[in-house]
Predict the 3D structure of the following.
Amino acid sequence: MAGSVSRLPRDPGPAGWNALLPDAAVPVHQEGALNADWLVIGAGFAGLAAAYRLAQLCPGDRVVVLEASRVGEGPAGRNSGFMIDLPHDLASDNYGGALEADLAQTADNRRGIALAAEMARVYGLSAEAFVQSGKINGAAGPRGDRHNAEFAEHLQAMGEPFEMLDAAAMKDLTGTGYYTGGLFTPGAAMIQPALFVRSVAGGLVSNRVLVFEDSPVTGLTRKNDDWIATTPCGTVAAPQVILAVNGHLQSFGYMPRRLIHVFTYASMTRALTDEECARLGGAAVWGLTPADPLGTTVRRISGTGGDRIVIRNRFTFDPSMEVPDARLTRVGKDHDRAFADRFPMLGSIPMEYRWGGRLCLSLNNVQVVGELEPGLWSACCQNGLGTARGTLAGMLAAEAANGVTSAALERMRQAEAPKKLPPGLIARAGAAARLRWGEWRAGAEL
Ligand SMILES: Cc1cc2nc3c(=O)[nH]c(=O)nc-3n(C[C@H](O)[C@H](O)[C@H](O)COP(=O)(O)OP(=O)(O)OC[C@H]3O[C@@H](n4cnc5c(N)ncnc54)[C@H](O)[C@@H]3O)c2cc1C
């Protein structure tokens, strides 16, 4: 299939994490007619993991990565930076699902995190970019406490370690009395997402691995034994291609009406003063996901760009994969309210950056990893957990294309395809209403 690419990515608002970092070098665009052994399209978690694994598996081969935007400006640089090992089904009440499936998913997520940890080690990333510190599910009232208790039971059944935190421990950590409890699990990694992907992309570049930015693929066609990708200033011909574009898989003509395109949003404060940090109290660095999957994620960060707080909430269903600019203003009000509820001691600290970014989900919570057509591989549809599952998908696509098998790849192979969505309007109205209902039920967690 493929042919011309129907839509290129548009990312709403500035990527705050990337804006904190020193300016990147001038981008290298793809120009002229290039040949490669491997072409990877997309330089998010999936694309970078695929390129890294290809460089390991085929050290003599030339690998070209084409990214439509700058590395760190797309969704991979826009997320909240929780690389989560445990089940994280956003459609559930408490992230958990069926025991067997959750055990397998946890093992697979850990393979993704292990590869990320390996890349962090090989490329000398700082603890600000990647650290395996675990994470907390924060509860803000009886409903959240109940979700955490249910999830803890599920973890017990899975044989997973966890620690319950009471309100006082949560206040010691976060400085706010907003949280009534917490559930700590040790396996997650925390990343500064833009620093992570920029450092990995920088580490990958060699005389064998070329990363071109601001080089969107506008067409992809098969000619004899090669796939030919067209960019605004040239072409890349390669016999093997890995599509690592998450929901934009659909823009290449694959999985029509099977992918659910959702945006979520974040705001980041300006740098806090020393006096404000002292007034807030708590630890200088922490991160919590909400006990209710549709609630508010909060990170307190301290590093490049100073001490700040990052708030993420709201999901919107946007089948066009684009959102109007006014949306950021609207959801910004929810961020300001969530901030004011949690940090009344800080008064009204302005948000310096507000942004949104795409997620790609499937109705049955499956990824699309495997061969779409001869020589054309997919590492897409990360179901909202792309830091870990995107890394896993890219790694497995590279391994599959090289005949390397594993239990994780076998599971991907045996998984169902993403379920077909019900026809147009019904799917649109139904999905939007479901998100709104879920957010309303999240109550204090939002
Ligand atoms: C505010 C927010 C918070 C989030 N928090 C978390 C979190 O805490 N933990 C977590 O796991 N996930 C989180 N996510 C989701 C996570 O960011 C995504 O799941 C992840 O980025 C997907 O990784 P990926 O590599 O598959 O795709 P992407 O990161 O989307 O990378 C795909 C790349 O392909 C490029 N591309 C698309 N089309 C083309 C083309 N035609 N030519 C060339 N390049 C193209 C895009 O520009 C993009 O850079 C969050 C997302 C947002 C927006």
